[in-house]
From TrEMBL:
Subcellular localization: Secreted
Domain of life: Eukaryota
Signal peptide feature range: 1-19
Similarity comment text for this entry: Belongs to the IL-6 superfamily.
Keyword Electron transport: no
Transmembrane portions of the chain: none
Organism: Psilopogon haemacephalus
Name of the molecule in the record: MGF factor
SUPFAM superfamilies in UniProt: 4-helical cytokines (SSF47266)
Length: 197
């Protein structure tokens, strides 16, 4: 029942988007090509984040989020905001700007994973590069569409948390990856919504 309720809550904001004034974008062939290419790209990044989550689970037995929620509050690791991607007054420029901000935050946070999982260095570096490339694809598309970049002053990329122990570093890395995965799922749904307008 919880999963069903969560599924409903996750999808509910998308129902409000159908009235959004995006018809002028939806018919643009270049825009559609951009969306489809970057949906695939986002799916690939999600797969790489999932591979790192499995590595953290296998190596440190940190697999279940519910068991670690108190530690998350203690460490102060938060989710990058993406509310503009599913607000009732959906604006592509605000959503794209938040996706770019979040990608920048997570790209920086991956340094903690690199330190924790040196054996996964090439995967972490690929992820950092992919996050940077996805961000530039979005920036380029915004420029092509004449969309202004929206800045969110309260969302300066947060400095990497300092972990007081190895265990905190492990749990912090677990949450960085879990939050990044959720962020990518929301970004993916926003791009898919635009592709189906």
């Amino acid at each position: 029942v919880q999963e069903l309720l969560l599924g409903t809550l996750l999808w509910a904001p998308w129902l409000a988007l159908h009235g959004a004034p995006l018809a002028e974008l939806s018919g643009d062939q270049d825009f559609q090509l951009f969306l489809h290419k970057n949906l695939e790209f986002t799916r690939k990044i999600r797969g790489d984040v999932a591979a790192l989550q499995r590595a953290v689970c296998d190596q440190f037995q940190l697999c279940k989020e519910k068991e670690l929620l108190l530690m998350q509050q203690h460490l102060g690791i938060t989710q990058a905001a993406l509310e503009q991607c599913h607000s009732r007054s959906f604006q592509p420029e605000a959503c794209f700007s938040q996706i770019r901000n979040g990608l920048s935050v997570y790209r920086g946070s991956l340094a903690a994973i690199l330190e924790l999982l040196p054996a996964q260095a090439s995967l972490v570096e690929t992820l950092q590069l992919d996050a940077a490339n996805l961000s530039s694809n979005i920036q380029q598309q915004m420029e092509d569409l004449g969309l202004a970049t929206v800045t969110f002053p309260t969302e300066a990329p947060s400095p990497l948390p300092t972990f007081s122990s190895r265990f905190h570093h492990q749990v912090g890395s677990f949450f960085i990856l879990a939050n990044f995965q959720r962020f990518l799922e929301t970004a993916y749904r926003a791009l898919r919504h635009l592709a189906h307008l």
